[in-house]
Amino acid sequence: MFNHLEFEKPIIELENKVKELEKFSEEHDVDLSKEIDILKTKLETMKKQVYKDLTPWQKVKIARLPERPTSIDYIKKIIPNFIELHGDRLYGDDKAIIGGIGTIGSIPVTVIGHQKGKDLKENIKRNFGMPHPEGYRKALRLMKQAEKFNRPIITFIDTPGAYCGIGAEERGQGEAIATNLIEMSKLKVPIIIIVIGEGGSGGALALGVGDRVCMLEHSVYSVISPEGLASILWKDANLAQKAANIMKLTSKDLLEFGVIDKIIEEPLGGAHKDIDFVAERIKEYILSEIPKLMKLDKNELLDLRYDKIRKIGTWQ
Q1: What is the dihedral angle through the alpha carbons of 65, 200, 145, 296, rounded to the nearest 10 degrees?
Q2: Deepest in the core among 97, 129, 179, 308, taking most CB within 10 A?
Q3: Are residues 35 and 114 in the same domain?
């Protein structure tokens, strides 16, 4: 059962009306095709209007929907022969990060992503997509393995942020994130980053240094959550909507700032409405970019990545 958002209510009501008329027409053998077609046209117009003019806060709400596809959902669609690998070889296996190997088309790749749950039980297992240090160290182990075997790296970003519990801090959360930032900047294989939901703070950046960065249309990417910013600026997390509207966290904003390279289109209503459509767009983007990056000399690849990172945040 999907969780419908407040701004979707008129759409849901009209969809239900169409279904009622279709059912009535079938049960009573009455031709209501003209009336149904009029309502369907109105429904499509309403959808285009609503989803075209989404506010930043509405995009945050869509990015957080429990039914929104997760990393493993896309991996299953794009890499059917995916083999998951576990553990950081230092402490344990963090289920908030999933990683492994497989092929996209005929190209062997390493793929790593934040992993949220679909319900409360799975979210507890996945720690709501908030990794511990061992998760980031697992990711780095797999990245180093990818470099050894000359495999391109694909990462899926979808986290509210790194876990900030006592145990995570004791085991070096800040160090693990910082190490990933340094090491990802130096890896001598192509890295493609895809923000599929929430991109929250350093917890996202620890998988976010690469040669190409793209976002799904209704995903968000920011240095802090709207609730966190509202708490800092106004001492009130309830002002999160106000914060979101000034944070420039949408895919459109970040494309204009040059932080990302591409926006991947979503169906009306969000990626959960048609995961096959979105997965195909992601696959097309990966297959279009990997061959270009693999043709580059290793030093040229690193130089271009360095320049890309240095340009983020510059202004005139």
Answers
A1: 100
A2: 97
A3: no
